[in-house]
Design a protein that fits this description.
- About 35% of the residues lie in helices and about 25% in strands.
- The protein is an alpha/beta fold and about 425 residues long.
- Helix 6 runs parallel beside helix 8 and helix 7 runs antiparallel to helix 8.
- It is globular.
């Protein structure tokens, strides 16, 4: 990772950070303080509080199946309101600011409404406004389709991706993500009261944590940061002090930060399981199933298939999906025309995972996970692994017990020694 590359700082404020008038003014003060400290500032804002949820409810009051293009037109308004209001607050503080929509800011996406992906950032207008000594406020979560020129949105948490993409395009020194928590923790503090705030985490660890339930950063934003070398600093909107740096493993190694081999315990209670019974155990069947699911926009997580025991060559195949995708998944399977003898679903599942880059060089981690859960009589229904993650699908009502047990077993409590990052990136205070 290179040293600080420019005097540009990208600051992103989540929905709770701009929920009311006082929160917007607090965000404006942070932005102005950064500018007065010598940085050129681009701020990305989310919609205020529960605005997006309220807009979705309004759409459903009108239509049971709202048109996806018009949903993007509707949902993109929330972030625009936040930016305009914050620009007004900055003007009152004696600084020049300009608010831009995603399309005005040059966020170019594909044409997938409600789940668009950024394919280019044309930040010329932002650069021009920065050169004019203006603070630039960009509406997060949205862009413009390169094909149809329609407004698109990036999906839940998409403002994180907007901020990281702008930081990459502008060669910013850091992308600061302001939220209602003070950083990334070793477990959800609502479940584990003595969870430890991490001073640093690698891109790879944060990717696995985001994918397995941690909600501090959107998964795609971390992928973008890793691919473009963007330094992320997760911080609290409501208090001062360092947060959590998300950087490359090489940078963590250079700082000589002593990391335990397990960094965090994450969990998810928002998944469902689909089981296809009596499918043919022959080449091409699984490919047909999962290609259809991918085409339908269903993201599949854990997959397990048993080997047939009898002579009928029939197998069972189970996989997990986000609960919001369950209906789409079952409808897609039904559309494949008798590919299985039956389909069962289970909405009462949860997932607990341990994540840590040091797991690569520490044998016996999986054995300890299974032993700890077994001692608590927590039945493991499915297992998924990567070099730095072990995930177990369990009953949803046992997730809190599993998180507490694994956090304690791997000694991740707040009083364990974990030095703070020796060098804080460019930052501001209220």
């Amino acid at each position: 990772m290179s040293e600080a590359k420019s005097d540009i700082v990208v600051m992103k404020f989540g929905g709770t950070s701009v929920a009311g008038p006082e929160e917007i003014k607090r965000a404006a003060r942070r932005i102005v303080a950064a500018r007065e400290g010598g940085s050129r500032v681009v701020a990305v804002l989310s919609a205020r509080g529960k605005t997006t949820d309220e807009l979705v409810e309004q759409a459903l009051e009108i239509s049971k199946r709202p048109d996806s293009r018009e949903m993007d037109m509707l949902l993109s308004t929330g972030e625009r309101i936040s930016c305009a209001l914050c620009a007004m607050a900055i003007h009152d503080m004696g600084h020049q600011a300009i608010s831009l929509t995603g399309s005005q800011a040059g966020i170019v996406t594909d044409s997938s409404h409600t789940r668009a992906k950024i394919i280019d950032v044309r930040a010329d207008r932002i650069s021009e406004k920065l050169d004019e000594d203006r603070i630039v406020l960009v509406a997060g979560f949205q862009g413009v389709s390169t094909d149809s020129l329609d407004v698109t949105t990036l999906g839940r948490g998409g403002s994180d991706t907007t901020a990281v993409a702008l930081a990459a395009a502008l060669d910013a020194s850091v992308c600061e993500i302001y939220t209602d928590v003070s950083g990334v923790f070793s477990a959800d503090p609502r479940i584990v009261s003595d969870a430890r705030k991490l001073s640093m985490a690698s891109y790879e660890e944060m990717l696995e944590m985001s994918a397995s339930g941690a909600k501090v950063l959107q998964l795609r934003s971390v992928e973008y940061a890793r691919n473009h070398g963007v330094r992320i600093h997760c911080r609290s909107s409501f208090e001062d002090g360092p947060g959590t740096l998300v950087v490359s493993e090489e940078e963590i190694g250079k700082e000589n930060v002593e990391q335990p081999f397990v960094t965090a315990v994450t969990h998810s209670e928002g998944e469902s399981r689909v089981t296809l019974t009596g499918i043919l155990d022959e080449p091409g069947v699984a490919g047909k199933i999962f290609t259809a699911l991918a085409d339908a926009g269903v993201n599949v997580d854990v997959i397990i298939q048993n080997e047939p025991v009898g002579d009928d060559a029939l197998a069972d195949l189970s996989f997990t999906v986000d609960r919001s995708d369950l209906t789409t998944a079952t409808d897609t399977i039904a559309g494949l025309g008798g590919i299985s003898q039956g389909v069962r679903t289970d909405e009462r599942i949860g997932k607990v995972s341990i994540v840590g880059a040091g797991m690569r060089s520490h044998p016996g981690v999986a054995a300890k996970v299974f032993e700890v859960l077994g001692e608590r009589e927590i039945n493991i229904e499915m297992i998924s692994t990567s070099p730095i993650k072990i995930s177990c699908v369990i009953s949803a009502d046992r997730v809190p017990d599993a998180v507490k047990a694994l956090h304690e077993a791997f000694e991740l409590e707040a009083d364990a020694i974990r030095p703070e990052a020796p060098a804080d990136p460019p930052t501001v205070t209220s």
